[in-house]
Structure formats: structure tokens, C-alpha cells
Amino acid sequence: MKTEGYSSEGHFDEMFTSDGEIRGHYEEYFNYLSKASNKKMRQLQHSANKAQKAMGMTFNVYHDNQGLEKILHLDIVPRIISNTEWKKLEAGLKQRIHALNLFLQDIYNEQKILKDGVVPAELILGSKDFLKPCIGLTPPKGIWCHITGTDLIRDKNGEYYILEDNLRCPSGVSYMLESREIIKRAYPQLFNDEGVMPVSDYPAKLLKMLQYLSDKSKPVVGVLTPGIYNSAYFEHSYLALQMGVELVNGVDLIVKDKIVYMQTTKGLEQIDVLYRRIDDSFLDPLTFNPESMLGIPGVFEAYKAGNIAFANAPGTGVADDKAVYAYVPRIIKYYLDEEPILNNVPTYLCREEKDRKYVLEHIDQLVVKETNAAGGYGMLIGPKSDKEEHEKFRQLIKDNPNNYIAQPTLSLSTVPCLTENGIDGRHVDLRPYILYGDEIEVIPGALTRVALKKGSLVVNSSQGGGSKDTWVLYN
Amino acid sequence: MLSRVASHIYWLGRYLERAENYARFIDVNFNLMQDLPADLKEQWEPLVMATGDLELYQRKYDGFERHQVMFFLTFDADNPNSMLSAVTNARENARIIRENLSKETWEKANELYYMLQLGLEKKVWKKEDPREFYEQVKNQILLLYGLADATVARTEGWYFRQLGQLLERADKTSRVLDVKYHILLPSVFEVGTPMDFLHWMALLKSVTGFNTYRRLYGNIDPSGVVEFLMLNKYFPRSIFYCIKEAERCLHCISGSNSEGFNNSAEKAMGELRSRLEYSEVDDIISVGLHEYLDKLQLKINHISDLIDINYFRIKDNYVSQSQSQA
């Protein structure tokens, strides 16, 4: 397959250097690619598509009875990360999760960091994600963020930046696992030659971490899902299957005397740990959103009594707010007395007058984000929008400055993809997964999201993004 | 096992069996029609009557033209019992509880769904001979059964699926017999003629029972066929066999020895089983075959309701996700 016409100008390409040389960790794959025919690559892509369909790897939602199931396109060309790069990422992510966990424990208890004025108290206490019922609580084993899926990007110089922390219910890990199975079949020999670190033990590690949260010798673990209409249902059921635990809905659970039971054909059975994939506010209609049809009445009382563990703990959402994000380097410094290993993207807080002024003046150069939105919604990409949109966002910011942050437009790195015109670069981000049990562990792999349209920077699956298998090399 | 999961597994069993039997129905009717003399019109109305959806059909369509009936029974999304509806529901149930299925079983159910979608796209009901399609669907479901048989652990979930499958099969065998009742012979004088004989033969073939019948009973006569399909102790599609096995499933689920009953579902099932066990074919014919089958179908529905009450909704706040019976 030829790579002529491959363009990598104005951003960092992960396979080619700016001089058009192949980077070391891509050599093996590049050799493979040079020998593989166009037809062969298309066949591999075709088989991958078929395998995804057969597995039912769908992500989208049902509306009533008419199924609208979408498949997240899996590009056959892997994204490769060298071991040296990975080591740094690993250390940086561990450091960050460690600090964020200490931060959560602190703000729900002593609030030292707020009293010391390192993070503005009103930013935390006034956040809708700061859950007052959690004040004074320490979750089992003192862990708040058990499962994290941090989003990173690489700028012009190839430097990694943290984009979002995703401490609530990060999804996508099933794609990392299933994509690997599919891609392994596409390159049986290459896998041996390259030395790719395995990810398939993730479900086992996840289960071990969940069991660790209970003091029982054989705790009963379940995955709590909002149900089949949730866009990530495939993942919920996949993880339950892989761990060999029950997949439960709210209606399957009942709380009696602060103990949580599952409704089974043999009567009630106690459940000890829930990997919950529903939002905080839907967990318990008695404590949080009374409208919630998904939750379990009384479950929060059971949690407070220590009779059920949740992963992640309720209340973590306050720490991945996009405004709090700006303070994470200071949070790391405060708790660990260390310099952050991984950088934040410089962030302007519209709540602060100086920053706001800068944002309003330079809106055409910035990316403006709502502090509480996800999935690429509520977002303005300055350089790619017209004056009308700029004005609309200026007004939105003025009306509700606390709700917005802005960041410089970053040029996401590109990696090779199989496109209609052969191999060409497409922009990507990186979402590795971190588990926090008896220790913090970064899974050596990731979900790489790719903007399939040439030049596009939007990688979200809901807006035309695809995915790639991510290879972390042993050497 | 979670009550909700048990319910989905049970209905997975029922819907798959329903789809398989519809494939058989259409096949048998197609074969029957080929044997009719040229001057007699094709009869597709009896098939619609036997499935119990005549009313729905008549609201939508006029007449009983073959392609129309075939579409109604196979692909019509408005017909909750069409093959496509059953397969879609089966897949939906499988998807909800896929963590309880082996990977292969789920993948076959998923493939089955796409097979039906492709059939719809290709308009197979308009083909001169669509039997290959029905054969494929039937084989896919049998493959799924085989896979499940070889890979699924014999724990509660297995018995709930079997239970659904066996009750559905008993119901559908009763309906196959009913097709024969509804098919009009050119005149009453044709009873016992070669034409009548051909009908019974086609019917036996539709349940893959022709050779077994021959070996066990020899001559083909109506009371022999009725006895074979309703009361035979060894043929796995006979109504008695299905009910006896379904009763065994209930006992495995409740973990009891197979004496007496532990709940209302076991009681009703046991009563039906013993009634069939101690019936002779003449008892049935004296009541009237069609009337007997009608009552039997109501009893099976009643048992299904009792299973729902005993296992799928014990708790007050459980929202029953009711699914439809034939």
C-alpha cells in the first residue's frame, strides 16, 4: 500500500516525522503496510466490519421498537505507542488520579484545600455536581474514582496534554477489548513480531478491584445499567458477561433495612458491590432526583451504612467539571508536592474577569466549552465558526460566565488510517483506562478515537468519529 | 437468577420456537397446495386461522392470496407473531440478557435477525418457491439449539429457556394439527381418500415426524396421527412429551423431587400432563379434535401466566414487561 500524498503539515504525525522519516516504533508496521496490497487491506477492513456486526458491537439507541443501531467504525490500521512514551503517560496518569482522589476525599470532608484558598470554595460548593448528601462520607477503602477514562491529545510538538478527566462513568472500554480481538485476527503474525502488550485481562482486573471494595470473602458484584435503551448498553452487558457477574436494572434491586437485595427466582439475594453505569442523580430517587425511574429507593442510605459499595463513588463528578480541571495542576502540587508529569491544556476560566475579557476578544481563535457538557456538545470551535456563532457564544458567556471555559485550538496529532484514497493521516485523541483498587493501574492500551473526515478535529462517536486499536509496545 | 433475566430467557425460548414453527407451517402448507388438484384453489386461509391471527389479518387484507398470507406470517411487522416479529423479539430478549448466553448463541441469534432482514429486502415471499428461505431459517434456529445444547450449563437459565421452548412447541404442534382440521377437502366423501392421506403425510413431514410415525404406527390414518402428535410418549414434538419435559423443567427450577407440586405453575402443569398421560385418542376424537385443541391451547396459556406470577414478578415494585402469547 502506498503512502504518497500523505499529508502531515501543521500538526504532529505519529508515523512520519516532519522530514518524512518513519518513527522507530512504526517501522515494523510500515514494512507490513508497504508489502500489503490495496486489495488485502480492504479485505481486512471488510472482515473487521463484518465481525463487529456479528458481535453486535452497536452503540446507538433504540427509539420505541424501531431499532437504530450504529456500529462505531473500527479502522484497521492500529495506533502504535512506544514503551518509552507509555511509561511517561502511565506515571502521569497515576499521579493525577492519586491527587484527584485525595481532592475528592478532602472536599467532602475537611475541605482543607478550600480553606487554604487553593481552589475557590464557591466553585466547588456551588457546583451542581457537588453532592451534599456525600459530605462527611468516606467510601469503602477511601477510594472515590475507581474507574477513569482520561482523554489526552498530542499537540504540534507531540507533547501529550490531558483534555478531560472523565471520573464519572467513562465508556468505551468494551471497544478497546473487542477491537483488539478483531485486529488480532487481522494481523496474526505481526502481533507476534511487534510485541504488543495485552489488554484482555481488563475484566479480571476490574472484577478484582470491585471485589476489593467489600470486606466479604466472596462478595456479590453486579453491573447496574439504565437498560437496553442506553447507548452504552452493549458495554454494560459485555462487561457483566466477561466478569461473570449479574447485569442488573434498578427494578431488580430492593432495599430493606439498609441492605440491598436482588430480586431472584429464589427470592431475595444480597448484593455487595455495584459497578454502576447510571449517573449520580439517578441512583436514588429518595436522596437525589425524585423523578428517577432508573434508581433504587433507599440505596443511598444503604451506602451510608456501608452495606453497599459503588464504583465510582457518588460525588466524583464535581472533580471532572471543566472549570475544576483548570485547577488540577495546583491540586497535584497541593496534595503530592510534585510537579504534574502530564500537562493540562491552558484553560481560560470565564468566571475570572481577566480570562473572560481575553476570551471575548479572542473568541475566533479559541475553543469554548460548557463546563458541564460532554460528547462534543455545547462547544464552539472558534476558527471553524462564523461571526454569527462567535456572537452567540459571546452572549452565552456574558449571560453565564461560570458555565464556560476556553482553550486555545490545539492541533490534534494524526495517525495513518485506511481511507477511500489509500493510507492517509486522520486526527485522533487517546483514552486510556485507569483502575484504582489496592493500587492504581493503567491498562496498557486505550480507546483511540479518530475523526474520520479529513482535517476534522471532532472525534466523538456521536458526531462521526471512529475508533482504532491502540498498541502499546513491550519495547 | 434474577427474575427479570429468567423472564427474558423464557421468552427467548418461546419466540425462537415460534419462529421455527412458522417456518414449518408455511412449508407444510406449500407442500399441501402442490398436491391439490388443479381445479381446486389454493387454501391459505386455514393457515391464518390456525395461527390464531385471523382477525388481525382480515382487518388488514382482503382475500387469502398466497403471497399476501406468506408476507403476513413471515415479515409483517404489524403481526406480533410473524416470524420477523418473533425473531426480533427473540433477539431483543437475547440482547437484554446476553451476559447470560454463550457468545456463540448470541451471535447465532443476531445472524438469524439479519437473515430475516435480508429476506425482507429480497422480498422472498414473492418467489416462485420460497421454501429454501424457510429451510435456512429453520436450520439457523436448530443450529442455535445445538450450540446451546453443547455449550450452556444446565443451571436455572437453561431450564427456563427449555420451559419456554417446550410450551411453545406444544402449542404449535396443536396448531399444526388444527391446520388439517381447517383445510377443506373437495367434499366429505374425500375423507380417507388418497388426497386425505397426502394431507396427513405432509403434516407429519412438517414436524419431521413422518419416518418415525411409519416405524411406530405403520399405516397412516387420522386417529394414528392424532395419537402420535398428541399423546406419543417418545416423539419430542408430541404435545404430551413437551408437557412432560416442561414439568420436569419446573421441578429442576424449584429443586424439588418430581412428586406432586410446589406452586400453582407446577400444579397446573402436572394436571395437564396427567390428563394427557391417561387419555386415549378416542377420548379426544369424541370431544372433537378442534374443540380439544382449543381448550388445550387455553390451558397452556394459563400455565404460562402462572409461571409469570410465580417466578417473574414476586416483588411489589416489579414492573412486569408483559410479552405476548400466540
Total domains of chain B = 1
CATH architecture annotation name of the domain at 348-407 in chain A? 2-Layer Sandwich
Helix content of chain B: over 70%
The biggest chain-chain interface is: A-B, 23 and 28 residues
Assembly type: heterodimer
Give the structural class of chain A: alpha+beta
Distance between the termini of chain B: 26 Å
Report the total helices of chain A. 15
**H/E series of chain B:** HHHHHHHHHHHHHHH
Number of strands of chain A: 24
Radius of gyration of chain A: 23 Å
Distance between the termini of chain A: 26 Å
Unreliable spans of chain B:
317-321
Structural class of chain B: mainly alpha
Instruction: Specify the helix fraction band of chain A.
Output: 25-40%
Strand content of chain B: under 5%
Q: Which range does the strand content of chain A fall in?
A: 15-25%
Task: Tell me what the structure shows.
The complex is a heterodimer of chains A (475) and B (326). Chain A is α+β, with helices and mostly antiparallel strands. Chain A has a domain at 348-407: 2-Layer Sandwich (Dna Ligase, domain 1). In chain A, 31% of the residues lie in helices and 21% in strands. Chain A is built from 15 helices and 24 strands. A four-stranded parallel beta sheet of chain A has the order 8-7-12-13. In chain A, helix 2 packs across helix 6. In chain B, 70% of the residues lie in helices and 0% in strands. Chain B is globular. Chain B has one domain (3-312). Chain B starts with a helix and ends in a 14-residue tail after the last helix. Mean pLDDT of chain B is 88; it is low at 317-321. Chain B has helices at residues 3-35, 45-51, 54-60, 66-74, 83-96, 103-121, 131-151, 156-182, 194-206, 210-217, 222-231, 239-254, 264-277, 281-287, 289-312. Chain B: It holds the Pfam family Alpha-E.
